[in-house]
């Protein structure tokens, strides 16, 4: 699924529907042609002239108010173009400015409107843009493909996007290095260097991120022997507001280099990146179903013997989907085993549940008793599409979501098997539709001696879900990486053999109904709050920078700021911000709240 930054320009005007008036037009009524003469009424009692004037003014005021309200209602709603009477012209809605851009992340959970959206085409253009913004103190927050669930790159004040700076500048096949402009997307880069027999060491779940963005937020793949993606960076060119363009590497200002590799876009605009690549190779993916009890027996071996491994836990079931990926053996090759079940057989349980559920919910909702002719044939839908449609029927009902999870468990039991492909094809993962995500990272011992805290975390999380009746969909995804030497990475460590576990929880947003999306959002943040209260401090867990959300409560925000100070070099980061970006033109509301710069500093 293509997931990229959504950018829309406003139209000149917005269409409005004209509400139908509940009152019939005023008409003169006649009962018949016959004239009836009623008896004369009794004479009214005498009243003073002052009382008569008061009554007259009162009712005249009521009449004037009614006339004005009617006129305002009539003229304030433009009629459709095909109306037979003349359109009203007294009140008009001002159109939105043509230069106003609406920018949202792919999940539609964060959105801003800005007049200042810049896409330079060359390094010189970028340098001039940053210089001018610095002099005028205009914000231009760096934003990539807009894939971050928390919208960390968005800013109403202004943004700079390097989508037009997406070239491969240099390939060193012998040293397995590539220098690229930071706006190039991961898939673009992989396609461009495959002719040299090279690829990236590891990948996140999707391929549409810009290289500059994926390293700045500390993104990661999976594999206990492999570090997060920022560790692939061996050099970078940073365009800073105060010091211009600077070249960084482990040999040129190593302290700033390591800080800026995972700099959250706050130290400069990453213009170019030099990456250490690896030889392109085919991988053998093995997917099979296990249980947590079985995993405990084999966990150390699974982490140490597989180049890539991840677990997918299905709440309200005992099922754990294990996915391992390793280079195809030159001697034995890929297994010749054929899948036991066809795709249709694997999806049967999910399709049956959908048919049963759709009938049940149509009976409950009288407005949906007849099938919608626009609904696609469920036999044409993928598993993730079917899951979205199932969850959309009752997304906050834990019993319903539990049934969906059980159907998913059956799907995976019939999807066991092997798959061979290039690493950029195999290591991807269909994450499903729009969703809220929270992902935490915490230490898990060493490769030689795993602490088993990672599995204890999952046990407590699953118990919490069932105890609180959280409508938690599948999967809870668990991955591992080695350490990072970037101090702002959640996986930072000075010990070379440390490993870290990353655990992601989700709630899907399978509907466009704003009210239902709000209800799901509220439930997700309740879910996230419970995991935070019960687990984060106990396991020294910290959220992924692209998935952290800013608390609305002042005390919660202060607690978050203090907590971040315990894990990350916030003072060093803010010092670098003051030196490189003193006017904070590269910042936004999220960065300012996470890392407030004191006035006395």
Can you offer a commentary on this structure?
This protein has 601 residues and is of the alpha+beta class. Among the domains are: 101-161, Uridine Diphospho-n-acetylenolpyruvylglucosamine Reductase, domain 2 (2-Layer Sandwich); 168-280, 2-Layer Sandwich (Uridine Diphospho-n-acetylenolpyruvylglucosamine Reductase, domain 3), CATH 3.30.465.10. It contains 15 helices and 21 strands. It has helices at 49-76, 123-136, 186-193, 211-216, 254-261, 292-305, 343-364, 383-393, 398-413, 423-426, 453-467, 514-539, 554-567, 570-580, 589-594; strands at 6-9, 101-104, 111-114, 117-118, 141-142, 159-160, 168-172, 177-181, 198-199, 233-240, 244-249, 269-276, 278-279, 282-291, 308-313, 319-327, 417-422, 435-446, 476-482, 498-508, 542-543. The strands form 5 sheets. Strands 17-14-16-15-19-20-18-21 form an 8-stranded antiparallel β-sheet. Strand 15 and strand 16 form a beta hairpin. Helix 7 runs parallel beside helix 8 (383-393), helix 7 (343-364) packs antiparallel against helix 9 and helix 8 packs antiparallel against helix 9. The longest helix has 28 residues, at 49-76. Residues 10-49 and 73-94 have low confidence and may be disordered. Residues 8-17 have a biased composition (Low complexity). Keywords: Oxidoreductase.
């Amino acid at each position: 699924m293509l997931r990229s930054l959504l950018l829309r320009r406003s139209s000149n005007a917005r269409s409005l529907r004209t509400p139908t008036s509940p009152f019939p037009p005023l008409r003169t009524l006649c009962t018949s042609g016959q004239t009836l003469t009623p008896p004369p009424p009794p004479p009214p009692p005498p009243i003073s002239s002052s009382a008569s004037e008061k009554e007259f003014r009162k009712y005249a005021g009521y009449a004037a108010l009614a006339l004005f309200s009617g006129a305002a209602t009539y003229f304030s709603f433009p009629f459709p173009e095909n109306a037979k009477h003349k359109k009203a012209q007294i009140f008009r809605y001002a159109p939105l400015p043509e230069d106003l851009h609406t920018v949202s992340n792919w999940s539609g959970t964060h959105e801003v409107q800005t007049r200042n959206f810049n896409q330079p085409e060359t390094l010189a253009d970028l340098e001039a843009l940053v210089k001018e913004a610095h002099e005028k103190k205009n914000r231009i927050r760096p934003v990539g493909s807009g894939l971050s669930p928390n919208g960390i790159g968005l800013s109403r004040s202004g943004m700079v996007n390097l989508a037009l700076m997406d070239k491969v500048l240099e390939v060193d096949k012998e040293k397995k290095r590539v220098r690229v402009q930071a706006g190039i997307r991961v898939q673009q880069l992989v396609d461009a260097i495959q002719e040299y027999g090279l690829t990236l060491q590891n990948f996140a779940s999707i391929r549409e991120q810009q290289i500059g963005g994926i390293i700045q937020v500390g993104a990661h793949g999976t594999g206990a022997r492999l570090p997060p993606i920022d560790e692939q960076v061996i050099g970078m060119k940073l365009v800073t507001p105060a010091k211009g363009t600077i070249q960084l590497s482990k040999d040129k200002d190593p302290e700033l280099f390591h800080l800026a590799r995972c700099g959250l876009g706050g130290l400069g605009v990453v213009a170019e990146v030099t990456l250490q690549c690896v030889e392109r190779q085919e991988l053998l993916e093995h997917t099979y179903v296990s249980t947590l009890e079985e995993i405990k027996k084999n966990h150390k071996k699974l982490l140490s013997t597989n180049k890539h491994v991840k677990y997918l836990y299905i709440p309200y079931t005992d099922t754990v989907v294990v996915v391992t990926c390793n280079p195809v053996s030159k001697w034995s090759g890929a297994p010749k085993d054929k899948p036991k079940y066809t795709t249709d057989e694997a999806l049967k349980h999910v399709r049956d549940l959908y048919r049963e559920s759709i009938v049940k919910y149509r009976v409950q909702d009288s407005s949906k008793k007849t099938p919608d002719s626009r609904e696609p044939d469920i036999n044409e839908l993928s598993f993730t599409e079917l899951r979205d449609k199932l969850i959309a029927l009752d997304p906050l009902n834990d019993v319903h979501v539990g049934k969906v999870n059980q159907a998913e468990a059956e799907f995976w039991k019939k999807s066991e098997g092997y798959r061979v492909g290039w690493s950029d094809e195999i290591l991807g993962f269909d994450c499903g539709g729009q969703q809220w995500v929270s992902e935490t990272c915490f230490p898990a011992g060493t490769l030689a001696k795993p602490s088993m805290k990672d599995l204890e975390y999952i046990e407590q999380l699953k118990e919490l879900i069932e105890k609180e009746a959280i409508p938690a969909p599948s999967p809870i995804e668990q991955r591992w990486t080695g350490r990072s030497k970037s101090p702002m990475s959640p996986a930072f460590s000075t010990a070379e053999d440390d490993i870290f576990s990353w655990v992601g929880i989700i709630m899907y947003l399978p509907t466009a109904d704003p009210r239902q999306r709000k209800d799901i959002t509220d439930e997700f943040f309740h879910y996230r709050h419970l995991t935070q209260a019960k687990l984060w401090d106990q396991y020294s867990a910290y959220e992924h920078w692209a998935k952290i959300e800013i608390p609305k409560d002042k005390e919660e925000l202060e607690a978050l700021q203090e907590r971040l100070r315990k894990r990350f070099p916030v003072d060093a980061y803010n010092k670098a911000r003051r030196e490189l970006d003193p006017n904070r033109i590269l910042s936004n509301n999220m960065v300012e709240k996470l890392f407030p710069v004191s006035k006395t500093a």
